[in-house]
Design brief:
Layout (H helix, E strand, L loop, with lengths): L4 E7 L5 E7 L10 H16 L3 E8 L4 E3 L4 H13 L8 H18 L5 E5 L2 E3 L1 H6 L4 E4 L4 E3 L13 H4 L7 H8 L5 H6 L5 E2 L5 H9 L7 H19 L7 H4 L1 H7 L5 H10 L5 H12 L2 H14 L4 H18 L1 H11 L17 H8 L20 H13 L3
Parallel strand pairs: 2-3, 3-5, 4-6, 5-7, 6-8, 7-9
Antiparallel strand pairs: 1-2
């Protein structure tokens, strides 16, 4: 049986090694399965401690996708299994287990102590973006197609979206979170999701040049050496960088997201009359997507502005588990990927119809302060009880 993740240690000229990781499920667009996570997490921990490993290189098998998202088909089966057991709360242990492990892996990449290079070629969506965004050197190519399309499946932009969507300029993060719009390499650089643009045919040359670096024990020195190498490759690739739609529409995006409530923002986005196909697709995704997902996304982004990364993941785990319990996520996956009728029966037909009781329930913590599954050994300045206190304060003053 073929391994869903392959690992290799490549010898460098000065006796050190580059560790390469390949997501190896191209038929599923290298979707991040639970089995992949179970292999990745301990191996990365091991390499972080291994003295002769100087950098990590993460890629997807094939030319079509780095990682097309999480393993939502198996999540759907877990949610349906919970239904069939006549669980009155429709709560699934499998959903909690998957998201807990996924967010632990994402957090490890964000906090990795050695250079962590991600080759984001092809499709990078959802869970794939969660893997990429935490890297120290995030590379996109002429083939990169990046999106957080969760509004179309009744979820919300997770995998740290509460944190990284707030790092984008001109309210781009809010726009992308609400519309699930697809972006290219230039867009990814513009909105701080990527660091370098290099054409895909330079990948093997780049890996070879990595082995020729004069590696030292200093992480800062090694980071700078990789940055210099990538900057040189980017200069040679610059003529193939596509035009950025986010940059082109930055004034419009800033204008339509400038309101202080979600209803006006959504109405403003949908009211724009333009002939740009990219913007029109974004409008379509918002119009036909889940109103509940949009409401959750808006509030998580507002809350994420004041939260540390670890606390964002804690908040998101609660939201994800409850998304698996509520039924909107299950229905969205059914319509898009299982029955493929593209006719989801959402719980709410508009932003205004999403009731406050439901939103309060989503942001009410499932766990007490001391038994949260995520990052038990990490204590940040923002305590979990504060997260949910701020959530209630925000929700109760909304709209």
């Amino acid at each position: 049986m073929t391994e869903v993740v392959t690992f290799e240690e490549i010898d460098c000229d000065n006796g050190n090694k580059i560790a390469t990781v390949t997501l190896n499920s191209p038929r599923s667009l290298n979707a991040l399965s639970g089995e992949m996570i179970d292999l990745l997490y301990p191996q990365l921990q091991l390499w972080q401690k291994q003295c002769d490993i100087v950098a990590i290189f993460l890629q997807g098998q094939g030319d079509k996708a780095f990682c097309g998202g999480g393993d939502i088909v198996n999540l759907y089966k877990a949610m349906k299994g919970s239904e069939q057991k006549q669980n009155p709360e429709r709560y699934s242990d499998g959903v909690e287990e998957y998201f807990t492990k996924e967010y632990q892996l994402d957090y490890l990449i964000h906090t990795f102590t050695k250079p962590f290079i991600v080759w984001g070629n092809g499709i990078v969506m959802g869970g794939g973006l969660g893997l990429m965004v935490g890297g120290s050197h995030r590379v996109v190519t002429e083939n990169s197609r990046i999106a957080m399309p969760e509004i179309s499946i009744g979820l919300y932009p997770d995998v740290g979206g509460s944190y990284f969507l707030n790092k984008m300029p001109e309210n781009c993060g809010l726009f992308l979170g609400l519309t699930g719009a697809s972006i290219n390499a230039a867009d990814a650089k513009y909105c701080n999701l990527a660091d370098y643009f290099v054409t895909h045919d330079n990948k093997q040359s780049f890996i070879k040049q990595l082995t020729q670096i004069d590696w030292e024990k200093s992480s800062e020195h090694n980071q700078n050496s990789i940055s210099t190498l990538l900057a040189n490759l980017e200069n040679a690739s610059s003529s193939k960088l596509p035009e950025s739609k986010l940059s082109e529409h930055k004034a419009l995006i800033s204008q339509v997201t400038s309101f202080d409530n979600l209803n006006d923002i959504v109405n403003s986005i949908l009211a724009v009359n333009c002939e740009d196909k990219w913007f029109n697709r974004a409008q379509g995704s918002l119009k036909h997507g889940s109103a509940l997902s949009a409401t959750i996304a808006y509030q998580q982004i507002q809350l994420g502005k004041s939260l540390a990364l670890a606390d964002c993941f804690r908040m998101e785990l609660n939201l994800s588990v409850k998304s698996g319990q509520f039924g909107e996520f299950c229905e969205g996956v059914r319509a898009l990927l299982i029955d493929k009728d593209n006719a989801p029966k959402w719980h709410f037909d508009s932003i205004n119809s999403v009731d406050q009781k439901t939103i309060n329930w989503f942001f009410e913590s499932k766990w007490s302060n001391d038994n949260h599954p995520l990052f038990g050994r990490y204590r940040t300045l923002v305590h979990q009880s504060y997260v949910h206190e701020k959530a209630y304060e925000f929700i109760n003053n909304l709209i």
